User: Fold these one by one.
Assistant:
Number 1:
Amino acid sequence: FSFAFQPAGVIFDSYATSTIAIAGISSVDNISLSSVTYEKLLSTINETGFNKIRADEKDYLITKEILEIQAQNQEEISVYDSAPAINAELESVIFKIEGVDVYNIDMLSEELSKYSPGDSITLNVLGEDEEDYDRDIVLGEHPLNENRAWLGIGFIDKKSSGVIGKIIDKISSFKKSNTYYHPKFDGISTFIYHLLWWIVLISISVALINMLPVGIFDGGRFFYLTALALTKSEKKAKKAFSFITRFILFLVYASLENQDYANAKKVIKSLKQRQLT
């Protein structure tokens, strides 16, 4: 991987967020509100775009989509801070700060620490056309330290859970989290990387699925022979085999049913990232 790719920039995951009390909201898009509830807030905000929320003498931003997936939160909600990055709709890949290369979170934080709130800096970022360009942005004041410059971006802890997740993390450990890599050889590097990664994932997935104790896989045969050896009864072994097969199929069905719920939880989690800069 290091032969074909080189670190080129930093990728941030989200704009900075905060958790606020719904009852503390005083206005939405400069329209004063009182005795705010979740239902009242939901009916007030616009369908599209960001809505400006005022709470506890501070400004925040939220979209209706993000508010809707927090329906279970009747007292507090997660919102975006009204920070320089989100107000400027800053791109998620940053290559340079004032001409200085930044390859990881530490380098990004170190460079930003050289500036003060109110300073205008030039960032080299990755545009929608996949080409880099320069743009100016005025740094804000950090909410926890008024003397510290603040861009208003956040990074999510990407450690996976579960056996498969840990295996994938181990395999991809050669790549640093939140680092943008640029191919040294245009076209060829990317093709070879995706081809090898696809082969690895397919091989692991096939091996794991094939060991499931379900009738159509080798794992089902292994389970049946193991049950037969332990019970010494073909009838009991077949019952155990039938039960475990149906149980696995039920788990697959249940996981598909809960997919939408899991996606909603993932969005909420992404709003609660650790904010470093």
Number 2:
Amino acid sequence: MSKSSSKSREGGRPVVYGSTEVFAETPDHEKVKLKLNKLRLFSNGMFSNVYRGKIVDAKSDDPESVAVKKCWSKSDSTLTEARIFGRLHHHKHKNIVHLLYMFETQHDDRTCYGLVFEFLPSTLYTYIRDMRKVFKRRPDIVETKLLTWQLFRGQAHLSNQKIIHRDIKPQNILVNPDTGLLKIGDFGSSKFFHAGEISHSYHVTRYYRAPELILKANLYGPEIDVWSCGCVLGEMLKCTTMWVGKTTENQLQLIAGTLGEPTENEIKAMKGRDLSMLSTSEIQEFYDRSSRSPLYNFQKLLPLAPADSIKLMTKILQYTPSERLCGPKLLSNSWFKEIFDPSTRRYNGKTIRILSMEDYRNAIAGDKEEGGTSATGTNTKENEGDDL
């Protein structure tokens, strides 16, 4: 059942809907009558729209504001997203957005499928853009460390739950600028990971796509998300997108211009099904430019980033998926020590209150207390981090 009223767009102001009543279901399959009020468009995509609103007569544990994702086709991805959130509901994590309710509404001969989430006021994409103005295109290292640690912690939890996000990028990462809290959202491209299972390679927005996906690998794991997280870190350090490939081939060329030519072992580890892009005359020019070490190339790519940040980047963005630094080994790296110092202050003068030493201990133990099983062990011993 659905009842709604709306105000038309005036002077560029967003459409505001009076209220909507729906019969909804919680992730625990409890049936409820849900009244949503003051809905307004927050963001829109090719397959769905996201609205911000409030729950009328909310339960005590419901947030004040919610995000409502609506889509008009019950595709396989919609069903998978619901199943993934079902698992995540039983293994809640502070750096993963929480699903509150699911519903369906009928409009003539069409069905609208809705997901109701907790609401965070910004995306990392918007936040990076705003911070770029504040700091005049220079990275704020404390803020970068705070957001990066939470991003990789959230990704580690997904990996523990055998979930590959497949579209980690700033637009799909939610942020509360006031507190610095970060949560991974939008699981529309996600899938459950089963070792040896063939998957489509055409996933992940180009700028954040791992090289094995560019080479059309169809046997891959959560390491593609680690690559995406590394690209997001690079974006925060550069204050703009790190590698902006005009085409898929050009994206690989830009990566090669920084990491250099992959070795035979690295090519084998990526399990690409189309290796032709690795031997073109165009990519050879990028190999020739990257005659020095990746460390030197990253320094040129990220000229304002501190040396220890560059060193960490070289450990994360590796051709060989299993050698990408992630999980507890990354989260215990000494680069993050500053954000667990009680005297550290953010750019807004506030201390960091969303992280504690208990968070740190839980994270490096694999977040078992938060419902995780254990770290997936995708790091090799040679690529361990420097402990705090």
